[in-house]
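LAB NOTEBOOK - FOLDING QUEUE
OPERATOR: T.R.
BATCH SIZE: 2
PURPOSE: Compare the predicted C-alpha coordinate outputs for two unrelated chains run back to back under identical settings.
PRIORITY: normal
REVIEWER: second-year student, initials M.K.

ITEM 1
FIELD SEQUENCE / FIELD STRUCTURE:
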Amino acid sequence: MREFVAEVVSIGRLWQCNLVQLLGYCRRKGELLLVYDYMPNGSLDRCLYDWSRTALSWGQRFRIIKGVASGLLYLHEDWEQVVVHRDIKASNVMLDKEMNARLGDFGLARLYDLGYPCLTCLAVLSMGKPY
Protein backbone atom coordinates (compact mmCIF):
# COMPACT_ATOMS: atom_id res chain seq x y z
CA MET A 1 0.00 0.00 0.00
CA ARG A 2 2.85 2.39 0.82
CA GLU A 3 4.34 1.99 -2.68
CA PHE A 4 0.92 2.57 -4.25
CA VAL A 5 0.40 5.77 -2.23
CA ALA A 6 3.88 6.99 -3.28
CA GLU A 7 2.93 6.39 -6.93
CA VAL A 8 -0.38 8.25 -6.44
CA VAL A 9 1.51 11.20 -4.94
CA SER A 10 3.86 11.21 -7.97
CA ILE A 11 0.97 11.09 -10.43
CA GLY A 12 -0.71 13.89 -8.45
CA ARG A 13 2.25 16.12 -9.30
CA LEU A 14 1.64 15.68 -13.04
CA TRP A 15 0.19 18.83 -14.54
CA GLN A 16 -0.46 19.42 -18.19
CA CYS A 17 -3.59 20.79 -19.84
CA ASN A 18 -4.35 17.47 -21.56
CA LEU A 19 -4.29 15.30 -18.42
CA VAL A 20 -7.14 14.84 -15.97
CA GLN A 21 -5.81 16.46 -12.81
CA LEU A 22 -5.67 14.37 -9.63
CA LEU A 23 -6.94 16.79 -6.98
CA GLY A 24 -6.41 14.62 -3.93
CA TYR A 25 -6.75 11.26 -2.30
CA CYS A 26 -7.95 9.72 0.94
CA ARG A 27 -6.52 6.57 2.49
CA ARG A 28 -8.59 5.00 5.22
CA LYS A 29 -8.82 1.43 6.56
CA GLY A 30 -6.93 0.02 3.59
CA GLU A 31 -9.16 1.78 1.06
CA LEU A 32 -7.90 4.46 -1.30
CA LEU A 33 -10.18 7.08 -2.84
CA LEU A 34 -8.91 9.29 -5.67
CA VAL A 35 -10.49 12.67 -6.50
CA TYR A 36 -10.11 14.01 -10.05
CA ASP A 37 -11.26 17.06 -12.02
CA TYR A 38 -14.88 16.81 -13.15
CA MET A 39 -15.17 16.31 -16.91
CA PRO A 40 -18.69 17.45 -17.89
CA ASN A 41 -18.64 15.93 -21.39
CA GLY A 42 -17.70 12.47 -20.17
CA SER A 43 -15.48 10.13 -22.09
CA LEU A 44 -14.65 10.03 -25.79
CA ASP A 45 -16.22 6.58 -26.19
CA ARG A 46 -19.61 8.03 -25.21
CA CYS A 47 -19.25 10.65 -27.96
CA LEU A 48 -18.19 8.06 -30.52
CA TYR A 49 -20.64 5.24 -29.77
CA ASP A 50 -23.74 6.92 -28.30
CA TRP A 51 -25.87 7.34 -31.40
CA SER A 52 -28.26 9.72 -29.61
CA ARG A 53 -25.49 12.35 -29.40
CA THR A 54 -24.52 14.68 -32.22
CA ALA A 55 -21.49 13.39 -34.15
CA LEU A 56 -18.19 15.14 -33.52
CA SER A 57 -17.14 17.56 -36.23
CA TRP A 58 -13.83 17.00 -38.01
CA GLY A 59 -12.45 20.06 -36.22
CA GLN A 60 -13.39 18.59 -32.83
CA ARG A 61 -11.89 15.23 -33.77
CA PHE A 62 -8.63 16.88 -34.80
CA ARG A 63 -8.47 18.91 -31.57
CA ILE A 64 -9.15 15.76 -29.51
CA ILE A 65 -6.41 13.66 -31.15
CA LYS A 66 -4.01 16.61 -30.92
CA GLY A 67 -4.79 16.85 -27.19
CA VAL A 68 -4.18 13.13 -26.67
CA ALA A 69 -0.85 13.39 -28.51
CA SER A 70 0.14 16.43 -26.45
CA GLY A 71 -0.67 14.61 -23.21
CA LEU A 72 1.35 11.57 -24.28
CA LEU A 73 4.31 13.73 -25.29
CA TYR A 74 4.30 15.29 -21.81
CA LEU A 75 4.12 11.87 -20.13
CA HIS A 76 6.88 10.36 -22.25
CA GLU A 77 9.33 13.25 -22.59
CA ASP A 78 8.52 16.39 -20.62
CA TRP A 79 8.12 15.28 -16.99
CA GLU A 80 10.81 14.36 -14.45
CA GLN A 81 10.10 10.65 -15.03
CA VAL A 82 8.77 8.73 -18.01
CA VAL A 83 5.14 7.75 -17.48
CA VAL A 84 3.90 4.84 -19.60
CA HIS A 85 0.08 5.00 -19.48
CA ARG A 86 -0.48 1.41 -20.77
CA ASP A 87 -4.23 1.81 -21.29
CA ILE A 88 -4.93 4.42 -23.98
CA LYS A 89 -8.47 3.93 -25.27
CA ALA A 90 -11.52 6.08 -25.95
CA SER A 91 -13.03 5.45 -22.50
CA ASN A 92 -9.87 6.86 -20.87
CA VAL A 93 -9.94 10.07 -22.91
CA MET A 94 -12.12 12.53 -21.02
CA LEU A 95 -13.65 15.69 -22.49
CA ASP A 96 -13.83 18.97 -20.56
CA LYS A 97 -16.54 21.61 -20.99
CA GLU A 98 -14.87 22.95 -24.18
CA MET A 99 -14.50 19.40 -25.60
CA ASN A 100 -10.72 19.42 -25.04
CA ALA A 101 -9.24 15.95 -24.58
CA ARG A 102 -7.66 14.95 -21.28
CA LEU A 103 -6.05 11.60 -20.61
CA GLY A 104 -7.29 9.90 -17.46
CA ASP A 105 -7.21 6.57 -15.61
CA PHE A 106 -3.59 6.09 -14.68
CA GLY A 107 -4.37 2.80 -12.91
CA LEU A 108 -2.04 0.75 -15.12
CA ALA A 109 0.56 3.50 -15.58
CA ARG A 110 4.19 2.79 -14.77
CA LEU A 111 6.82 5.35 -13.83
CA TYR A 112 10.38 4.99 -15.11
CA ASP A 113 13.46 7.10 -14.58
CA LEU A 114 14.62 9.05 -17.62
CA GLY A 115 17.14 6.99 -19.55
CA TYR A 116 15.63 3.68 -18.37
CA PRO A 117 17.39 0.95 -20.42
CA CYS A 118 15.56 -0.01 -23.59
CA LEU A 119 12.46 1.99 -22.68
CA THR A 120 11.78 2.51 -26.36
CA CYS A 121 11.73 -1.29 -26.77
CA LEU A 122 9.00 -1.72 -24.16
CA ALA A 123 5.74 -2.97 -25.68
CA VAL A 124 2.61 -3.39 -23.61
CA LEU A 125 -0.76 -4.44 -24.93
CA SER A 126 -4.16 -4.04 -23.35
CA MET A 127 -7.27 -5.89 -24.41
CA GLY A 128 -9.45 -3.73 -26.62
CA LYS A 129 -13.21 -3.74 -27.04
CA PRO A 130 -14.53 -5.19 -30.30
CA TYR A 131 -17.10 -3.05 -32.06
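ITEM 2
FIELD SEQUENCE / FIELD STRUCTURE:
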Amino acid sequence: MLSKLKRWSRRTQDPATPADACPAVEDIQENDDVSRFLCADVSEDVRRQALRTLFHKPKFNRRDGLDDYDEDYRLVHTGARIGPKRQA
Protein backbone atom coordinates (compact mmCIF):
# COMPACT_ATOMS: atom_id res chain seq x y z
CA MET A 1 0.00 0.00 0.00
CA LEU A 2 2.86 2.33 0.80
CA SER A 3 4.38 1.89 -2.65
CA LYS A 4 1.08 2.88 -4.27
CA LEU A 5 0.99 6.06 -2.21
CA LYS A 6 4.57 6.88 -3.11
CA ARG A 7 3.88 6.34 -6.78
CA TRP A 8 0.71 8.43 -6.62
CA SER A 9 2.53 11.21 -4.79
CA ARG A 10 5.37 11.19 -7.30
CA ARG A 11 2.97 11.27 -10.23
CA THR A 12 1.00 14.20 -8.83
CA GLN A 13 4.18 16.19 -8.20
CA ASP A 14 5.67 15.57 -11.65
CA PRO A 15 4.96 18.39 -14.06
CA ALA A 16 2.66 17.58 -16.91
CA THR A 17 4.29 17.05 -20.27
CA PRO A 18 3.86 20.13 -22.40
CA ALA A 19 2.07 19.92 -25.72
CA ASP A 20 5.33 20.83 -27.46
CA ALA A 21 6.87 17.54 -26.29
CA CYS A 22 4.77 15.62 -28.80
CA PRO A 23 6.34 15.27 -32.22
CA ALA A 24 4.95 17.30 -35.07
CA VAL A 25 1.88 15.85 -36.72
CA GLU A 26 3.50 16.21 -40.14
CA ASP A 27 6.30 13.85 -39.08
CA ILE A 28 3.99 10.86 -38.50
CA GLN A 29 5.09 7.79 -40.45
CA GLU A 30 3.08 4.67 -41.32
CA ASN A 31 4.56 2.53 -38.54
CA ASP A 32 4.60 5.19 -35.81
CA ASP A 33 2.63 4.84 -32.60
CA VAL A 34 -0.12 7.47 -32.70
CA SER A 35 -1.56 6.59 -29.30
CA ARG A 36 0.13 9.66 -27.80
CA PHE A 37 -2.17 11.78 -29.98
CA LEU A 38 -5.27 9.93 -28.74
CA CYS A 39 -4.85 10.81 -25.05
CA ALA A 40 -7.43 12.90 -23.26
CA ASP A 41 -5.05 15.83 -22.78
CA VAL A 42 -4.57 16.30 -26.53
CA SER A 43 -6.94 18.72 -28.20
CA GLU A 44 -9.52 17.47 -30.66
CA ASP A 45 -7.94 19.43 -33.52
CA VAL A 46 -4.51 17.85 -33.00
CA ARG A 47 -6.07 14.39 -32.68
CA ARG A 48 -8.04 14.83 -35.89
CA GLN A 49 -5.03 16.20 -37.76
CA ALA A 50 -2.85 13.29 -36.59
CA LEU A 51 -5.38 10.70 -37.74
CA ARG A 52 -5.89 12.50 -41.04
CA THR A 53 -2.13 12.57 -41.64
CA LEU A 54 -1.87 8.87 -40.81
CA PHE A 55 -4.74 7.80 -43.05
CA HIS A 56 -3.39 9.79 -46.00
CA LYS A 57 -0.29 7.57 -46.02
CA PRO A 58 -0.20 4.97 -48.85
CA LYS A 59 -0.37 2.04 -46.43
CA PHE A 60 -3.82 3.09 -45.21
CA ASN A 61 -5.03 4.82 -48.36
CA ARG A 62 -5.42 1.73 -50.52
CA ARG A 63 -8.59 0.53 -52.23
CA ASP A 64 -9.50 -2.96 -51.14
CA GLY A 65 -11.87 -3.90 -53.96
CA LEU A 66 -14.88 -4.10 -51.67
CA ASP A 67 -16.41 -0.96 -53.12
CA ASP A 68 -19.66 -2.39 -54.49
CA TYR A 69 -21.62 0.72 -53.62
CA ASP A 70 -19.27 3.27 -55.16
CA GLU A 71 -21.09 3.33 -58.48
CA ASP A 72 -23.91 5.70 -59.32
CA TYR A 73 -27.15 3.80 -58.77
CA ARG A 74 -29.46 6.77 -59.23
CA LEU A 75 -30.15 5.84 -62.84
CA VAL A 76 -32.15 2.67 -63.21
CA HIS A 77 -31.42 0.71 -66.35
CA THR A 78 -34.24 -1.64 -67.19
CA GLY A 79 -34.10 -4.69 -69.38
CA ALA A 80 -36.75 -3.24 -71.74
CA ARG A 81 -34.13 -2.08 -74.20
CA ILE A 82 -32.29 -5.37 -74.08
CA GLY A 83 -35.27 -7.68 -74.72
CA PRO A 84 -36.56 -8.75 -78.16
CA LYS A 85 -38.12 -6.09 -80.35
CA ARG A 86 -41.90 -6.26 -80.66
CA GLN A 87 -43.65 -6.21 -83.96
CA ALA A 88 -46.21 -3.40 -84.11
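REVIEWER COMMENT (ITEM 2): The CA atoms of residues 6 and 12 lie 10 Å apart.
FOLLOW-UP: none requested
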